[in-house]
Design a protein that fits this description.
9 helices; alpha+beta; 25 strands; 2 domains; Fumarylacetoacetate hydrolase, domain 2; SH3 type barrels; about 375 residues
Length: about 375
């Protein structure tokens, strides 16, 4: 995986005794932007002030950073800090958080599990990107310990979640706000970049509570994101998956926003799944258009996620509920252990690549 000049994801870092500030990753180091570019916007403890500058500033700054790291390497070296000397923080202040449900394979699998005697997809699924509003206050940076949630498990029963799960997702970070609906064609004007997401899920709490209003306490206890936000400009784009029926006008794609991203799900140091993002049914420009078509505004720092990324094969599923078919076919680890869902002490890491570049990882350990 490459962390070279074509990548340059943004993050927020600090050294011991220093305030957090913005940098970009280059190889195994962080490029200190406030010091290197003499721009106080990068002395902020989040990406929000820089993201709010807009698309032209994003492009110009990226070109400037690339030039310094390529042509002015002698000066740049003095502002490159080894990763082992820094602490990485939540890279942006999360304004609102919306989670979608955009994988046809994932939605079909979950429908079969939850409603085995009915049509897996609900009637609306191919007409709009289904989503729900999450809790921005429980979005945490990678490596933050995850506490097993408690809640109602069924009628009259309260206790710790017994079916703790993951969802391997891709998150999209809004830079430029809007006061009105945002059409699909304006996607690049508003969205700054992408980050890896693990939307931790308490399946037993979720199954009891989700009818009729959808996810609530089964999701809101924690969502982990990578410390790195990769600019849209760095991502390889491909045509989106064919859609039938044809979407309504406001959802019609104005460009290729399928993304050539391959994910890996690691459990306690072993790969258990390789979810393929190119199989996603709804693309992020459509998610943004639908999220705002009713007049809802965007704010700098809004995060919206793709929903679980899953492919058609078993080894491509992005949640344990699908991988183990709701616990009936456990994952077998090399040491002889099995997992139906997550146990205390388990560590899950999601990694991804886009073409030849690395998107980093998001990791968490269950406490």
């Amino acid at each position: 995986m490459s962390w070279g000049i074509d990548n340059l994801p943004y993050g927020v870092f600090s050294r011991q005794g220093e305030a957090p500030r913005v940098g970009v990753r280059f190889g195994d180091k962080v490029f200190d932007l406030a010091a290197a570019l003499h721009d106080e916007v990068f002395a902020a403890p989040s990406l929000n002030p820089f993201m709010a500058r807009g698309r032209q500033a994003w492009h110009d700054t990226r070109a400037l950073i690339q030039n310094k790291l390529d042509s002015d390497r002698g000066v740049a070296e003095s502002h490159l800090i080894p990763l082992e000397q820094v602490r990485l923080h939540l890279p942006f202040e999360v304004a609102d958080y919306v989670d979608f449900y955009c994988s046809l394979d994932h939605a079909s699998n979950i429908g079969k599990i939850f409603r085995p005697d009915a049509e897996p997809l609900l009637p609306n699924w191919k007409h709009l990107p289904v989503g729900y509003h999450g809790r921005s206050g429980t979005v945490v940076v990678s490596e933050t310990p995850i506490k097993r949630p408690h809640g109602q498990l069924r009628a009259g029963v309260y206790g710790p979640c017994a079916k703790l799960d993951i969802e391997a997702e891709l998150g999209f970070v809004v830079g430029v706000p809007s006061e009105m609906g945002t059409p699909a064609g304006a996607f690049e004007d508003h969205v700054f970049g992408v980050t890896l997401v693990n939307d931790w899920s308490a399946r037993d709490i979720q199954a009891w509570e989700y009818v009729p209003l959808g996810p609530f306490l089964g999701k809101s206890f924690a969502t982990s994101v990578s410390p790195w936000v990769t600019p849209l400009e760095a991502l390889p784009r491909i045509p989106g998956r064919a859609q039938d029926p044809e979407p309504l006008d406001y959802l019609r794609r104005q460009g290729d926003w399928g993304l050539d991203i391959q994910m890996e799900v690691w459990l306690n140091g072993e790969i258990v799944s390789r979810p393929p993002y190119p199989t996603m049914y709804w693309t992020p420009d459509q998610m943004l258009a639908h999220m705002t078509v009713n007049g809802a505004s965007l704010r700098t720092g809004d995060l919206f996620a793709s929903g679980t990324v899953s492919g058609p094969a078993r080894e491509e599923r992005g949640s344990f509920m699908e991988l183990t078919w709701n616990g009936t076919d456990p994952i077998k680890l090399a040491g002889g252990e099995t997992r139906a869902f997550l146990q205390d002490g388990d560590t899950v890491t999601i990694r991804a690549t886009a073409g030849g570049i690395a998107l980093g990882e998001v990791s968490g350990t269950i406490g």
